[in-house]
From TrEMBL:
Occurrences of domain NIDO (ranges): 113-276
GO cellular component, one term: plasma membrane
Originating species: Anser brachyrhynchus
Disulfide bonds: C863-C870
InterPro entries (UniProt xref): 6-blade_b-propeller_TolB-like, cEGF, Cueball_EGF_LRP_Nidogen, EGF, EGF-like_Ca-bd_dom, EGF-type_Asp/Asn_hydroxyl_site, EGF_Ca-bd_CS, G2_nidogen/fibulin_G2F
Annotated protein name in UniProt: Nidogen 1
GO molecular function, one term: Wnt receptor activity
Gene3D superfamilies tied to this protein: Green fluorescent protein, Laminin, Thyroglobulin type-1, TolB, C-terminal domain
Signal sequence, start to end: 1-23
Gene for this chain: NID1
Main location: secreted
CDD domains: EGF (cd00053), EGF_CA (cd00054), nidG2 (cd00255), TY (cd00191)
Keyword Transmembrane: no
Length: 1221
């Protein structure tokens, strides 16, 4: 059984991927979903429906009801069915759409399954409606209602059915072209009896293709609204708004309506809308999580609509269970941490009074960087002042100098919680200790997720209002507005916090003490928490809602204080169909004590009073797992009433689209740009980890192994060696070494060298000088190490030289004359000069600026910064036909530029012999790796590189099970090569007349290879040795990629991810009988596989984010999983499908029988994974007519169903080749 810490860590990793369903599937929380059944009740003219007149703001005449509809406790006798801005059923005559677009509640009263600006002009969809009392329809409606309310005895006598069928969004001139073809379908069912009424909202699978529409009032895009609104009451001089309930009002919530439910069936939402009560009561079925799936958003966590917390006027509760880390097993045992005052220091002495405030005084001993440099972070510089020294983080890092973290990088916080808390009037306290706390922070969004495990149910629900237990972590990493600092920038994550909470009403008090101890050896912040006191009881099963709030933080002399009063709303579990709510409040007083540097006056420039703004607050307790979860978004800046718009830059609100490993840099107004964090490389929208190990082969020294990690790297000594305290130099292990207790300077500046017996010496590392116990940086720039015509830049332990403008060279030697620019760099320079602005976003709309990589090559994906359109380019920067995508969507472009070969010992490109058994082979840029399979499981500890070709870009991989050979395509050459898995050097078999060879397949029976070329737009075949080439297709192809064969039946299959018309095609292996197999509901079909045992054809689509399968000889297809991230290639073995994912940098295993992801493998080196194939231990059974004696053909033998065709190569002339069928 996994430990609690392991489970929680896994959950946090799931949060990085932003795929909620995958996280649940890993832990078996979801059951396999059957193929979706039709949700909608019968509708259309054939069922007696009236059709609404086509138009932009059409509405029906009043629909007189045979049975009154009860709505908010009032009987309604007639309804107005509206479309256009609508998707609503109006209780009274609706006003013109301009008056209520984007407004909720609406004055006329409405039931809104999807209120938005819809348009059925020119036949773009239909709206059908009728009242029905047939027994069949009443039975269908009753079944839905009883799914959500199992205990009800309700039997409808009349049903109103309104269906919006394939309706379009309103499109003004010049607006978003990506919305033109999108259509929505949904249905509202209103069921009534004599005493009560229910509403059923139905959203079939994939029926919602857009989630917002453009405003006619120039307000931009307005999200759709789902909810209920009671009509206003008019008096002589004023109007009293009615109650209202909002179910979903943002794109993330709308997007998940068809995936979620409050009635246990995806896409079904049931509400009691009128009875003796005057409120809306939602269904609440405990197995709702079986229907929840996550939507794709590059790194981003979204919330799901869930009917849980309803007030009498407004409901905004949303369900976010899986956005939090979680655990089920008991925690590992660690020593309990206490909160004593810090031990007195020789130099700095701290005393605590009873409030926990630190008073500091200093001795007369002068402190300098020379003898205190080790107190600074390795990512900081130390500076001396007249009365002491201070540390400050270098560019690219955030913190107080003693502790620094890479700017924009996600952070993790680990710790322990203990407590002794009385709940309500219970005389016996709930006591716990050694409870795990884990937190994950998306730093560039200020979003903090915190989970506390093994909190007993008797306490868990009552702790829900105290979100600030984890909120302190949000303050530490809040998004900083210009000139303001979050908690980590001020404290470096080293501080104590004492909080007193007083609950208003019964005056219960709770004291919370927390100690943050900085960053541990794993790069994680550490925290210990202690709670003691009494809190009000919140009943089991209740939910708590906390509105966004602000809080003022006052800083003075190493102390930060704040106090506020906060309210929270509790919705108790339903009793007799009614859920009561009440509001609670408490006063919050906290004191944060930390050690600041008093010598650097510039550190005090930050305003003494700052405002923390907290929104999107979600709190949840899971009784099954005993996990308490908090999540919130945080930003810190000036005092504001929230009305000013000057600070709403996306960088400050966290609404930018930067990668989670990137920094958001604000510009003027709402402009911003993204910059990858230290240790990552990319355009900021997508950042890739820098592999320091391959780029700096000697970084760890001899007798050491370098392991790359996201944003950094680790050195590990080989067996028999241990670190000599510098983190790089490995020395022979000696049990008598005293270096473990040395007094040398920090490992980044000095090393301890064991000299025998109990003796050791401290020596400064190269680039530093001193006695080894205190080392100072050597300023090489003072020694004239650079050329006279170069600038010298000193860095800790090193330096760099850069030729001055007008000179070129490496800085050590500079000669007159500018550096020759690449074509991309020249075009970029010209474009920027003509734009004449610092920010590309400020250029004229038509201006396009080419994007180049660090070596001056064109990036494979080019995007227009103003229009958002993206396309692929070849190595010369020319656009590749059929790759242009709409705004916000990036096509799967391949880089033709091979990575630079690292300086150091060359790696022979020999294959490492493959062990017996079945393996997965996959490409990762310049190498092919293998993962052994044990049954259906990946044996990840046996994964190794099979072949290193560092100057190549390997895309497609195929395997010949007869000769045990691996074949691959390389687009940097370009070329097609092969190598024996018994060992030996690779051989290039084709290297002429290729453009961009990508997909490759092996017919092991006919002894042929097939491949696609996306630059030449053709599919070819050749013998296994590369001879006898023949073009099968060179028309009707735009971006052909994956290709697979079915040798036994003689069929060929391939994908074409043409943005205008993606498709999957098939033909016989001789090129005859070509036809389109799949063309609907495709986006970017990247990968394709044919399973010879089940005869299933499966594919992964980076556009629709789905993995699907079909039998090519039958109609219909089956969705295996959806919501995957950016799949590239796929293969099959046994019950599993394995696909490579560009976003996760991983091989992902999916059980296709039950549609569940069951494993994943991430190589040590994080970079894009390309083609994947299965290396079978034994060839699949079967034969074709080319298996024996080449089918009697003189040259190419190409199998067909039940036969074969003999074909000549394209370059053969003469009578020695005979073609025949």
């Amino acid at each position: 059984m996994l430990s609690s810490s392991q489970l929680i860590t896994a959950w946090l990793l799931c949060l990085l991927m932003i795929h909620l369903l995958e996280c649940f599937l890993i832990f078996g929380q979801l059951k396999p979903q059957p193929h979706p059944e039709p949700l909608l009740l019968p509708h259309g003219p054939g069922h007696g429906d009236a059709a609404l007149e086509h138009g932009d703001d059409s509405r029906s005449a009043a629909l007189e009801l045979s049975r009154a509809l009860r709505f908010y406790g009032t009987a309604v006798r007639s309804l107005h069915v509206s479309v256009a801005t609508n998707g609503i059923i109006a209780v009274n005559e609706p006003s013109n759409e301009e008056k209520y677009l984007g407004q909720f509640p609406v004055s006329f009263g409405a039931i809104a399954p999807f209120m938005a600006d819809l348009d059925t002009t020119d036949g773009h969809g239909n709206v059908y409606y009728r009242e029905d009392s047939s027994s069949e329809v009443l039975k269908l409606a009753s079944d839905y209602i009883k799914r959500g309310f199992p205990e009800t005895t309700f039997e409808p006598s009349s049903v109103v059915i309104v269906t919006w069928k394939l309706v379009a969004p309103y499109q003004g001139p010049g607006e978003d072209p990506t919305l033109e073809e999108k259509r929505n379908t949904f249905q509202a069912v209103l069921a009534s009896s004599d005493s009560s009424s229910y509403a059923i909202f139905l959203y079939p699978e994939d029926s919602l293709q857009f989630y917002s529409t453009y405003s006619k009032n120039d307000d931009g895009k307005i999200p759709a609204m789902v909810g209920f609104s009671q009509a206003s009451t008019n008096y002589y001089f004023w109007e009293k708004p009615g109650s209202y309930n909002i179910i979903a009002n943002d794109e993330d919530s709308i997007r998940n309506l068809h995936k979620s439910s409050n009635a246990g069936k995806k896409g079904v939402w049931v509400f009691e809308i009128g009875s003796s009560s005057d409120s809306i009561v939602p269904a609440k079925i405990s197995n709702v999580l079986e229907s929840v799936e996550s939507s794709e958003q590059d790194q981003e966590m979204t919330s799901k609509p869930f009917m849980s917390d309803y007030g009498s006027t407004e409901i905004r509760q949303q369900y976010v269970t899986s956005n939090f880390p979680t655990a089920k097993a008991p925690p590992r045992q660690f020593p309990a941490q206490q909160f004593p005052p810090q031990e007195p220091q020789v130099i700095d002495v701290e005393e605590f009074d009873e409030t926990g405030i630190v008073f500091r005084y200093h001795t007369d001993v002068q402190q300098t960087c020379a003898n205190n440099r080790h107190q600074c972070s390795v990512h900081a510089i130390c500076k001396d002042y007249p009365n002491g020294f201070c540390c400050s983080c270098i560019a690219g890092y955030k913190g107080n100098g003693r502790q620094c973290v890479a700017e924009g990088s996600p952070q993790r916080v680990n710790g322990k919680v203990k407590g002794r808390i009385f709940v309500g009037n219970n005389p016996v306290p709930v006591t716990f200790e050694n409870t795990d706390l884990h937190s994950y922070v998306v730093m560039n969004q200020g979003r903090a997720y915190t989970a506390i495990s093994t909190i007993p149910e008797t306490l868990g629900y009552s702790l829900l209002p105290l979100a600030s237990i984890g909120g302190i972590i949000g303050w530490m990493f809040a998004v900083e507005q210009q000139g303001y600092k979050n908690g980590f920038s001020v404290t470096g994550g080293e501080f104590t916090r004492q909080t007193e909470v007083t609950f208003l009403g019964n005056n219960e008090k709770l004291v919370i003490k927390q100690k943050f101890s900085g960053i541990d050896e794993h790069g994680h912040l550490t925290i210990s928490t202690e709670m003691e006191g009494r809190i009000p009881e919140i009943p089991s099963g209740a939910s708590v809602h906390i509105e966004p709030y602000t809080e003022l933080y006052h800083t003075s002399s190493s102390v930060i204080t704040s106090s506020s009063t906060r309210e929270y709303t509790v919705t108790e579990p339903e009793r007799d169909g009614v859920a009561s709510t009440y509001t609670g409040a408490y006063q919050w007083r906290q004191t944060i004590s930390f050690d600041e540097c008093i010598h650097d006056e510039s550190l005090h420039a930050t305003s003494a009073t700052q405002q923390l703004s907290v929104d999107s607050v979600f709190v949840l307790y899971n009784r099954d797992e005993q996990i308490l979860r908090y999540a919130m978004s945080n930003s810190i800046g000036p005092i504001s009433d929230g009305s000013a718009d000057i600070n709403r830059n996306p960088c400050y609100t966290g609404t930018h689209n930067c990668d989670t490993n990137a920094i958001c840099r604000p510009g003027t107004g709402n402009r911003f740009f993204c910059e990858c964090s230290i240790g990552f490389r990319g355009d900021g929208n997508v950042c890739y980890d820098v592999d320091e190990c391959s780029e700096q082969p000697a970084v760890c020294g001899s007798n050491a192994v370098c392991n790359n990690q996201p944003g950094t790297y680790r050195c590990e000594c080989v067996d028999g060696y241990q670190f000599a305290a510098d983190g790089q130099t490995c020395v022979a292990v000696d049990q008598n070494s005293e270096c473990s207790t040395h007094g040398c300077d920090i490992p980044q500046r000095a090393q301890c060298v064991y000299t025998g017996g109990s003796a050791y010496i401290c020596t400064c590392l190269p680039g530093f000088s001193g006695d080894g116990r205190a080392c100072e940086d050597t300023d090489e720039c003072q020694q004239g190490r650079c050329h006279p015509d170069a600038f010298c830049y000193n860095t800790p332990g090193s330096f760099s030289c850069q030729c001055k403008a007008g000179y070129r060279g490496d800085g050590f030697q500079c000669v007159l004359g500018g550096v020759e620019k690449t074509r991309c760099q020249h075009e970029q320079e010209v474009a920027l000069a003509s734009g004449g602005a610092f920010f590309q976003r400020e250029m004229r709309v038509a201006q396009f600026v080419p994007q180049c990589d660090e070596h001056g090559n064109y990036l494979p994906t080019q995007c227009h910064s103003n229009t958002g359109y993206c396309w692929c380019v070849d190595r010369d920067g020319n656009e590749i036909d059929g790759t242009r995508s709409g705004p916000g969507v990036q096509p799967p472009c391949l880089s033709t530029a091979a990575p630079p070969v690292a300086i150091g010992p060359s790696v022979r490109p020999d294959t490492i012999p493959l062990p017996p058994g079945t393996h997965l082979l996959f490409a990762q840029s310049g190498k092919i790796e293998h993962v052994p399979l044990e049954g259906n499981n990946m044996k990840k500890n046996g994964a190794k590189a099979l072949l290193h070709i560092p100057d190549k870009v390997i895309i497609g991989v195929a395997y010949d099970c007869m000769d045990k050979m691996v074949y691959w395509t390389d687009i940097s050459g370009p070329s097609i090569s092969r190598a024996s898995l018994h060992g030996g050097e690779p051989t290039t078999i084709i290297k002429t007349d290729l453009g961009s060879p990508e997909g490759i397949a092996v017919d092991h029976l006919g002894r042929n290879i097939f491949w696609t070329d996306s630059q030449l737009d053709r599919i070819e075949v050749a013998r296994l040795d590369g001879r006898q080439r023949r073009i099968l297709f060179d028309t009707g192809l735009v971006n052909p990629r994956a290709i697979v064969v079915d040798p036994v039946r003689g069929n060929l299959y391939w994908t074409d991810w043409n943005r205008e018309a993606p498709k999957i095609e098939t033909s016989y292996m001789d090129g005859t009988n070509r036809k389109i197999l799949v063309k609907d509901d495709l986006g970017l079909p990247n990968g394709l596989t044919f399973d010879p045992y089940s005869s299933m054809l499966c594919w992964v689509d980076a556009g629709t984010k789905k993995l699907e399968c079909m039998n090519p000889n039958q109609f219909g297809r089956r969705k295996i999983v959806e919501g995957i991230q950016y799949p590239f290639s796929v293969t099959s073995y046994g019950k599993n499908l394995y696909y490579t994912d560009w976003r996760r940098d991983a091989v992902v295993a999916v059980d296709r029988m039950v549609s569940i992801e069951n494993d994943n493998f991430q190589p040590h080196k994080r970079s894009r994974l390309y083609g994947i194939t299965t290396a079978f231990a034994q060839c699949p059974g079967g034969h074709n007519y080319c298996s024996v004696n080449n089918g009697g053909c003189t040259h190419l033998c190409l199998a067909t169903p039940g036969g074969r065709t003999c074909r000549c190569p394209d370059n053969t002339v003469g009578v020695d080749c005979i073609e025949r069928n």
